[in-house]
Model the fold of this input.
Amino acid sequence: MKALTVGQVAKRAGVGVETIRFYERQGLLAEPQRRASGYRQYDEEAIAVLRFIRRAKELGFTLIEIKGLLALRLDGEATRSDVRTQAAAKVGGIEARIRDLQRMRDALSGLIAACHGDGAATGCPILEALNGEHPVEVPTGPN
Done:
């Protein structure tokens, strides 16, 4: 096993050195052994874990969720069903966020349509709605 420095690991994993230290503090990445000089020495597995974390973040997983996925990855008793359940739960959360964003878009679009964009800002339906003077129509129902 060739020992790697934190800088080498960071470069190969495509993350910053401070990111590695942060993940160590969060318990996502095991703290490496230290040389007699006190320098940390990493192995190839650290790079694999960091890439795993980066890809999971790109898919929208939170650090807490990633910690759970990493635990499944190392658990010899974990099943594909366990992993699939985590991924399906994430999709459900994403779909709920999409619905929320669509409702916000529709409400804001309604306010934009109500504001003709000419004249003084006083009396602007958007500002009045934000002030609570007029209710914001947030559509409900399937989107």
